[in-house]
Amino acid sequence: MGLKEFFKEPPVKPVITDGVKVESMYSDWRLRIFYSCFIGYTVFYLCKKNIAVALPGIMSEFGYSATELGLLGSSLYLTYGIGKFVNGVLADGSDVRKFFPAALLMTSIANILFALAPNAVQILGLDTKMSGIVLLWIFTFLWGISGWFQSAGFPAVAKSLTYWYSNSERGTKWSIWSCSHQAGTFFSFIIAGHVAANYGWRTAFLVPGFLAMITSFWLFDRLRDRPQSLGLPDIEEYRQEPVKVQNPTEQNSEDNMSYVQIFKKYVLCNKTIWLLAIAYVFVYIIRFGAEDWMIMYLKNAKNIELEEGTKMVSALPLIGICGTICAGLISDKLFKGKRAPVNLIYLIGVIITITVLKFNTINELNYVIIGLLGAFTYGPQMMIGGLCAVESSSKKVASAASGFTGTFGYIGAFLSATGTGFVVDKLGSGGQENWDGAIYFWLASGIICLIICSILTIDEYKKDRKKI
User: Fold this and answer.
1) What's the average model confidence in pLDDT over 351-368?
2) What are the pLDDT digits (tens) for 71-111?
C-alpha cells in the first residue's frame, strides 16, 4: 500500500437511521474530536516554541552569531508558510485520523534528531570550524523540516472543526480551540525552560519530542475523519440547520464537481478568500510586531526597564485568550454566525489601543493597553484566516482555504520582522532609531485591514439582501 492509499480519506458509510444512536454517537464523538484537536495542537507548540529557550545554550556551546541563529530560526517560518497551503490541499482528501498524528510524529522525530545532531557531526571527525558550519546547516534543515510537518496540523484541525460543528456554534468552538496556541506556548516555556536550565539545551528538544511521539499514537486512537465516515448524517442535517452556501441560485452541485474544480472555484477564483488572505497579512504584521518588537519599543521609546517590559508584554497572550473566546461567542450569539461585524469591532479596538499606547505616559496603564491589544488582535487572527476562510469556501476545500490564508499570514510575519525594523531605522536620524515608526507601521496595517474587512462586511450584507 502506497502513501496515497494509506492517507486516503475513508469512504462514506450508509447513514444510521436510529435517531437515538445518532444522538449518542454525535454527542460522544464531537467532544472526543474537540479535545483531541486541542491537546494535539497544544503539543505541536511544545515542539515549536522550545527553540526560544534553547538558543542561548546553542550560542554558548557553538559560538554562533545572532545572524546565524536568525537564519536557523527563520527556516521554520519559511517552510511553515509554504507548507500551510500545500498541506491544506493534501489534508482535504486525507484521513484526519492518520494525517494529523503522522504530522506530529514526524515533528517529534525532527526535534529528537535536532538534539542528536551534534553527536552525528562529531562522528564525522571534522575540524572545529567546518563542523560548526555543517552543524548549523543541519540544524537549519531539521528545524525547517519540523516547520513543514507542523504546518500540517492546522489544516487537519480546520477540516475536523468544519465537519463536526455547524455554522451557528463553530465560532465558539473554534475560538476555544484557538487558545491551544497560547496554552502550547505557555507549557513549552515551562517544560523546555525547566529541562534546559537543569539538564542542557538538548533536553529542550528531546523531552517535547518524546511527548509529541507518545501523543501522536494517542491521537490515532482518539481521532476519526468526517462524521459520514462513521455513518452519521451531515452536521447541518443533525442540528437541523440550513447549509451555508455562497450562491443559493447556482445549479451545479458540488457532488458533480472534481476536487480541482471545487478548489479553483471556492479558493483560487473566490474574491472573498483573496480579500481575507490580504487582510491576514496585516493582522500578522500587528500580531508579530507586538510579540517580537513590543519589548524593544517599551525600552527605547518609553525608557521602561527590560524586566518590567517583559511583564507588560506577558499580558498580550493572557488577555488575548479572552479576546479570542469572546470573538467566537459574540459572532455566534450576538451576530448569529456572522463574522464580519466582529472583525470590524476588533480592528477598531486594535487601532484605538495602538494610538493610546503611543500617547500614554502612565507605566501601570501599559499593562492594560497591551493586554487589550492582545485581545483585539487575537480575535481577528482566529477569525479572518481560519473561521472566515473555511466558511467562505466549501467544506470540501476547508483545509486548502485555511492553508491559503495561512500562507499569506506568514508573509505578514516576515514583513513584520523586516518592516518594523526598516521603518524604525528609516524615520530615525543621526544614527538614532525612531521607535514611533513601529507604532505608525502597526497603525497603518490596522487601518488597511479595517478597510478590507469593511468591504467584506458590505459584500456579506449584499448577499444577505439577495436571499430575502
Assistant:
1) 92
2) 787 788 788 888 888 888 888 889 999 999 999 999 999 99
Query: 3-state DSSP call for residue 248?
Result: coil
Site of grid cell 542561548: 56
Structural domains of the chain ordered from first start: 15-242 (1.20.1250.20), 264-467 (1.20.1250.20)
Residue 33 to residue 77: CA distance in whole angstroms: 28
For residue 42, pLDDT over 60 is answered with yes
Residues 207/54, Cβ–Cβ less than 8 Å: no
- Rounded distance between C-alpha atoms, residue 439 and residue 436, angstroms: 5
Burial 36-68 (b: 16+ CB within 10 A, else e): bbbbbbbbbbbbbbbbbbbbebbeeebebeeeb
Q: Are 44 and 106 in contact (CB under 8 A)?
A: no
Query: Residue for cell digits 518592516?
Result: 419
| Pairwise CA distance, residues 393 & 69, whole Å | 39
* Longest distance between any two alpha carbons in the chain, whole Å: 77
Residue 249 binned pLDDT confidence (cut-offs 50, 70, 90): very low
Rounded to 5°, the CA angle 410-373-170 comes to 65
pLDDT of 251 reads 42
Report DSSP letters for 190-204, one per residue: HHHHHHHHHH-TTHH
**254-278 core/surface letters (b: 16 or more CB in 10 A; e: else):** beebeeeebbebbbeebebbebbbb
Is the pLDDT confidence value at 122 over 90?
no
Whether the pLDDT of residue 417 is over 70: the answer is no
Residue 468's SS3 state is coil
Three-class SS state of 173: helix
Q: Band the pLDDT of 332: cuts 50, 70, 90.
A: confident
Alpha-carbon gap, residue 339 to 382, rounded angstroms: 11
**Cα distance between residue 325 and residue 127, in whole Å:** 54
Q: Is-contact 365 129, C-beta < 8 A?
A: no
Residue 429's beta-bridge partner residues? 432
The pLDDT of residue 111 is: 96
135-191 pLDDT, tens digit per residue, is 888 999 999 999 999 999 988 998 898 889 887 787 788 788 888 887 887 788 778
The backbone torsions φ and ψ at residue 257, rounded to the nearest 5 degrees and listed phi first, read: -115, 145
Residue 169 class from Cβ within 10 Å (0-12 exposed, 13-18 middle, 19+ buried)?
Answer: middle
Q: Is the dihedral of CA 44, 46, 47, 53 positive or negative?
A: positive
DSSP reduced 3-state for 250: coil
pLDDT reported for residue 348: 95
DSSP H helices in 63-202: 66-92, 96-124, 128-150, 153-164, 167-178, 180-199
**Residue keyed to cell 517544560:** 191
Q: What's the CA gap between 205 and 279, in Å, rounded? A: 34
